[in-house]
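Hi! If you just cloned this repository, the fastest way to understand the data is to look at a raw example. We've pasted two of them here, unedited. The first protein comes first, obviously.
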Amino acid sequence: MSEVTGQGNTILMDEAAVERAIIRISHEIIERNKGLENVTLIGIQRRGVSIAKKIRDYLESIENAKVPMGILDITFYRDDLSRLAAHPVVNGTHIPFDVNDSKIILVDDVLYTGRTIRSAIDNIFDMGRPSCIQLVELIDRGHRQLPFKADYVGKNVPTSEKESIEVQFEDVDGVTQVMLIKEGI
């Protein structure tokens, strides 16, 4: 499903395609972990939280079991913090469970350079030592600067450096879709 908008940008995934990807990822998580024992979810602020909530709802529905979920803000763990605004927006971290020995499913929207994931893992290890961390990304667009690979991917989208990916969710943006943005258009 690709639809070019009036600005020359492309809708890569509409709401139905996003839902199908999240449902598939949910089933893959259950299969890989042989159920949900000791599985926890952590969504990276902002849109990783939206994805994590949807995954949690599907996991709980499929397995009829509760899945602990946390929210992670990596703002102060970023390696480019000094380049951000003088007063960066902090959305808050809330991890209502012990990360020690848990199987953490870390959820984000777009995997690009890998720097967000490095920051998130640093943050998690400051809280304790999980038995493992598995990575969910709705979109993998390539161009890695650090050696990270997602365990679960909604869609691989090869991009150029002059393109970007914009993930939107109803609860944050008023619409659910994934767009390929052509810079300079």
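Ok, and the second one:
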Amino acid sequence: MELFRIGFLTVSLIDILDIGIVAFIFYKLYQVMRGTVAAQIFIGLLMILALSFAAQALGMRALGWLLGTLTNIWVIAFIVLFQPELRRLFLYFGKNSFVRFFIHIDISETVDDIADAAAELSNRQHGALIVIARTSALRTIIETGEEIRAKVSKGLLVSIFNPKAPLHDGAVVIRGESIEAARCTLPLSSTTKISGYVLGMRHRAGLGVSEQSDALVVIVSEETGTISVAEDGVLSRGLSPEGLRRKLKEMLPSPSEKGIRSIFKRTAEDA
């Protein structure tokens, strides 16, 4: 349906919707990359695209061909240079309620075990790094450690992070009710200090994986016994065991949340 004309160009409702969607995508890309070196490169890419479009509109074939060639090369460079930013953008879309409807992760039964284990480790001042997977795949991280595939329990977590245990050095990855692996290596965050507090390797590792995925990370300091939680690149320090329990229950899906898998399972049982 034609809305109005600009010279020889006709503008319809679909055109406005198309422009709005593209503008929203570019805006989200800008939000993700704002304050980084990638933002400057992104602005350069936009300028090349704009000049290429103008050259083609004005019939400047040689300049249009040159800029078009650069644009094709920049598509590949864009994927390589902006890999971390693109990952964050996809995670942003993956965290919305519509996507979560199709992906159901019920970890509520393990929250008490994780909180109790963190409290015990805090009292003993045994360092711990517990990664709780949500929708992001952590296969590459699991492959760096020793696969366990055992049911989550307070005793098992406390045993793993005992300084004398062979698997204590590294992170534990939990998915659902299962400890997938231990002694896993995590990517380090480039952040070294938060509000004047210098981050150790354990906290930087927990912060790093939370920046690159939607996982929750529980961190227990070996030096002070302080309990912290990292999510979306934000570190919350100084939690009590009960505070940790409440925070995990707030951040993780509750049993009342029903995903599409649960619906299919219930339908099959009814049949």
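That's it. A detail worth noticing about the second one: The chain has two domains: 2-94, 103-251.
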